[in-house]
Protein 1
Amino acid sequence: MRPDKLTPLFADSANLKGVGPRVAKLLENLCGSRIVDLIFHLPTSAIDRYNAPDLNEAISGTIVTLTITIVKHRPAPSKKAPYRIDCQSDQGFLSLVFFHAPRDWLNKNYPEGGTRVISGKLEAFRDGWQISHPDYVVTEDNVWQIPKIEPVYPLTGGLSLKQLLRFISESVKRAPALEEWIDSSLLQKQEWPSWQKAVQAAHKPESPADATPLSSARQRLGYDELLAGQLALSLVRTRQNKRPGRVIKTDNVLEDKIRALLPFHLTASQELSLHEIKTDMASPQRMMRMLQGDVGSGKTVIALLTMLHAVEIGSQAAIMAPTEILARQHLEGMEDLGASIGVKVLLLTGRDKGKARKEKLAAIADGSAQIIIGTHALFQESVEFKDLAVVVIDEQHRFGVHQRLALSAKGDGLDMLVMTATPIPRTLTMTVYGDLDCSRITEKPPGRLPVTTITKPLTQLGEIAEAVIRAVEKGSKVYWVCPLVTDSEKIDLAAAENRHNTLVKAFENYGMAGKVGLVHGKMKGAEKDAAMESFISGDVDVLVATTVIEVGVNVPAATVMVIEHAERFGLAQLHQLRGRIGRGSGQSTCILLYQGPLGEVSRSRIAIMRETEDGFRIAEEDLKLRGGGEVLGTKQSGLPEFKVVDVAAHTKLLQVAHDDARLLLELDPGLTSPRGQAARTLLYLFEKDTAIRYLEG
Ligand code: ADP
Ligand code: MG
């Protein structure tokens, strides 16, 4: 149960004064619908209103606060022209500019001959200065009404900063004093405030520096979130360790048979990874290992070999893929190999219905199916294994922790291998995977040619389309990726459909009908598979796709990829996409089409894409560039999403949080001591409720 003290924080922001249904909706989109969401909606910067420069030396665009005498009103000479008020201050002359301001209001606030203090953005105009619509105008007695330092928040259309400030300040008032969960010596050493004080300070910066993630308050809040994350991961992990694993140790009979059948030798890091996996399986502890390797680095064969060891001791193994297409691809890769060594491989997906499904379930239950490939359908309770010993989860970040756990309940002391093609920067592995053991495949299989990456402005789309036609004539298969850009899937889909249409027409003009296909996320499973299938082995040579192709699909003949609006993708995602080509022995080209002008961050991203194909390097760079503008697909990138942690500014605290969480749980595994209790509150505060359930039993 969530502690009572936290109840006010999880109340709906709709019960704040001034929040009606319309504003509630805006707040929900902006940061979330509860008080706690407003509390964790932190300033991005702060306006300094101490600035009162001499106007001879002022800089246009800065915020200034000036005492002025109102000289003369100059009403607008025409409808389109503004209303001007000439003013004089000790620092020089300036005029105030208003559009559509009621005359009465202007006269009242800016009486001719009166003195006022105003604050607003100073702009150069002709050879003088102006401020349009000052943020503040007060009499000299009321100067205190102008905040000297004013926090700036991310906003949303329809909501003013003033409104948001009011709601946040109301919310902050409801932040209770909480028992301290941070180790007292750490707290002293860092000179961090209490949680309540930190919340207050984060929203009331006293200098612009206070509004950055490096401020003491923000570091504390960031640390809280990191600690909560580490505690949660540790709890899950400890719980899993408690249940003993089983010893899976074989004479490598099946492994050797498969090796003899493979047309290649394993790379050095594949060998090392497999060795690490086998060592884990042979130990009586449960395996909890992650296999990281770039797209195309050859994780699948490692998965197969891993599973065969379970089969060899007479048990079953399952591999779970995030999509139907991928599950099918695994089936294709494994079914024949399995058959040739007498191992029965079976695919179970949500699409198996009726009698066929019954038969498959029976084969899983009686053990005649030895390797089971599946999608989410494998979680379902009706699926009973005879004796499941090993589970491999492919592209793991698509699955949540609780799904992973649901699966682990399917077998006793199950060994688990999770595979991901998202290289996670070393510094962050811990946040995402806690203490998960990690194997890395660092090189690509031999014989692959590097992908040539070029960039072109979107305005050259026509030429690119023609180049694509020529490439197809020479036998290439081409991916054409359209990004998801709006909130509206309809509009996104329309963009992809449009591109599909133009390309279909362009190809028809060259007498090549039926060469262009389309695949997108709104398609039903069977439709999607059919579209992929005709690209893999049919007539379709150009596949227009939204980002559904991102995950794992292997089409070695694809050698060209066009990515439209490359500037809208994050680095990790661009890298994932590009990994779809360069999988065969042919020379591949990736064309990044961008819409200019490019911001600094997009420019750097694209430059890095041209510079390297090393996923681990790209992941590090991605991390550095994150926060620098809206990035699509952050969710898919596999990086954790934080509320208050600033990944770049708070990385150093991660190790501390990690060690602290571990120590706390070692001393107080049930979190029952006073500090343990406080830590429970922390877990609830960051909604790690699932982790708390592991404490309860
Ligand atoms: P991913 O890591 O993205 O899942 P895959 O397992 O799909 O990569 O491997 C991509 C391709 O590389 C497959 O066609 C696979 O057969 C091949 N492959 C895997 N390992 C090797 C190797 N050591 N040498 C040559 N080819 C390999
Ligand atoms: Mg794969």
Protein 2
Amino acid sequence: MTILDKFKALQGAYDAVQSAGRDPFSVCFDEVLSPSEAVLKGRRVILLGTNNYLGLTFDSGCIDKAVEALVQAGTGTTGSRIANGTYGDHAELERRLAAFYGVRSAMVFSTGYQANLGILSSVAGRGDHILIDADSHASIYDGCRLGNAEVIRFRHNNPDDLARRLSRLKGQPGNRLIVVEGIYSMLGDTAPLKEIAAVKREWNAHLLVDEAHSLGVLGGNGRGLAEQAGVEADVDFTVGTFSKSLGAVGGFCVSNLPDFDVLRIACRPYMFTASLPPSVIASVTQALTRVQEDPGLRTRLSLNAQRFYRGLEAEGFVLGPQVSPIVSIRMPSTEVALAFWNALLEAGIYLNLALPPATPDDVPLLRSSVSAAHSGAQIDTAIATIAAIGRDLGVVTEPPSRRTETAKRQAGLPEGLRQPAHGHRHDRAPVAERTL
Ligand code: PMP
């Protein structure tokens, strides 16, 4: 018996995943060429699973600012924010974030994960209740575990269930903190924020919105779902990350609460870790400027998201409930998801494989994230490749319009050259023609 024996079942599941082809959890790019293309084992692939929503990782302005800061201020701060790790540029980025959101204060963390860990574990204390959406990101769950508040899960995107659970707390002392996400990372659906804000007001709770996937994506100014829904005044804490639309790494929380800055000496994941390197702070500050000055980035992203979502929908795939830059295809089983993911990689498309228990309702997903940097041709290639493999594996049948064309084409061929309509090509056993 060793201390790692508890992971035997997990190791077994991982071995099964690896035996199906490439290891989806240790993909290593030879070279990343641009926000939308990389080289993997000598082959060019379209990047379709990167969260690089605005394509800013290669923005020349962001790179210039990062290089300048690197040369001027060195490679790292080697200290936490409360020791030697706060430079003028860290403070300036916090001022910029607070001004962007029109609130009093901002705190920059070393990752978005740590922002959730820090804020949730410190603002809600013993005797308080945190009410989290059941589909919350791991960082939200972990932030709850790090603190001393009672945690209550409510049904995903269900304000009535939230209200019911709050009503059961009536008469109990302590504060209530509701936690939701702007765009949910697995299926790309948005929170019903207007209704959630109404519940918040009715029950005199606080509200935290994690805009990790919606900053730079939603809202007239790119501030996220709360801006789009017109409920920013109801949000007490906005959490976000620099690792998606802003193309770098890091996280933040902004708030209009007058005493928010006390968290700088109370929030352990802020206090006891090294601060972000100056180069990262510089590129993020420039990326924020791009978000503010170039609304065309959001328009391009939105058009690409529409094109990809509608294209896959027309091919018969079962997707998340709404158009969003996160487009996930529901898979009938883990085995099919693995075969699909491997076949896509062979065909030059990289996207994310998301497996239970990390997915809503334990449904395996092929998760893509669209970028403003994708060309129309890349999106169309991805749709055509996914559709061909989907038909091959029996995940979808041919759409009715194309079925007629194929039938006509096949009718003109000699019998031996005709192909079955779908799902029976090659020597792979057809998977039940089932979509979830
Ligand atoms: N919140 C949500 C909703 C996320 O999806 C993520 C990252 N996937 C994070 C927080 C953490 O962000 P970071 O990568 O900056 O740690």
